[in-house]
Amino acid sequence: xxxxxxxxxxxxxxxxxxxxxxxxxxxxxxxxxxxxxxxxxxxxxxxxxxxxxxxxxxxxxxxxxxxxxxxxxxxxxxxxxxxxxxxxxxxxxxxxxxxxxxxxxxxxxxxxxxxxxxxxxxxxxxxxxxxxxxxxxxxxxxxxxxxxxxxxxxxxxxxxxxxxxxxxxxxxxxxxxxxxxxxxxxxxxxxxxxxxxxxxxxxxxxxxxxxxxxxxxxxxxxxxxxxxxxxxxxxxxxxxxxxxxxxxxxxxxxxxxxxxxxxxxxxxxxxxxxxxxxxxxxxxxxxxxxxxxxxxxxxxxxxxxxxxxxxxxxxxxxxxx
Length: 321
Known about the structure:
Spore Coat Polysaccharide Biosynthesis Protein SpsA, Chain A; seven-stranded mixed β-sheet; 7 strands
């Protein structure tokens, strides 16, 4: 099969028939073998009924339905588990992503050798309250990940099948799939400017809380990507630095008192009467806690079922009968 199209959705019953017809036209014009997987994320409208109707009319349509709303990441993750096509396309169900972009995205994966191609909505039909924070997060993600993409959060993306079968998308991590893919070893990540349509039906499903969640998720994925399998390197280092700072301050205060009282015969305040002593004590305690936290994290990591789970590129003559 050439293409699997994964479409997460929530309350988009009005747009689904039009989107399906658009996809079918593009697939037939380019003679692609394909499947369309609609992932209904607990819709309250008639989205699931529409999907069942489309599946009866078109054998290439498949559907997944959640009992409640789990979020876009969960919908994508389940869709990725089900795909069979060589190239996987993701797009939103609100008709703001154009299926006409699919042939070029497919070509970039199959002929251009890319692992992942992300769409870039160069001209957007969204209010400034949505575009301004998005630009800020894209800038922060570029700086933190080293991936030069203009629009990490664009729903229109193309993947080599190996990519979606090697990663797990959870929480609100769908915004950072290129970052997850990079940490999994898929480094050939490209970008394509794509058309952005104005919303035709319904309203946006994302509120202001997504900006706070996006920042927290970015910090989380950056930490997990770098230290997920070696937590001692982070917590142990921070703990040692804090402990040594506290220890040096304590030694300085004690040495200062001994020097002036015995060498200079001058009375000084007791060490415990000096505020900086308690700062040193806090630094020592915090350093000890961080070190213990890193040690416990290392034990958990070492004993986890996936402690030696690596993303393999291939093998020859290994494990074959």
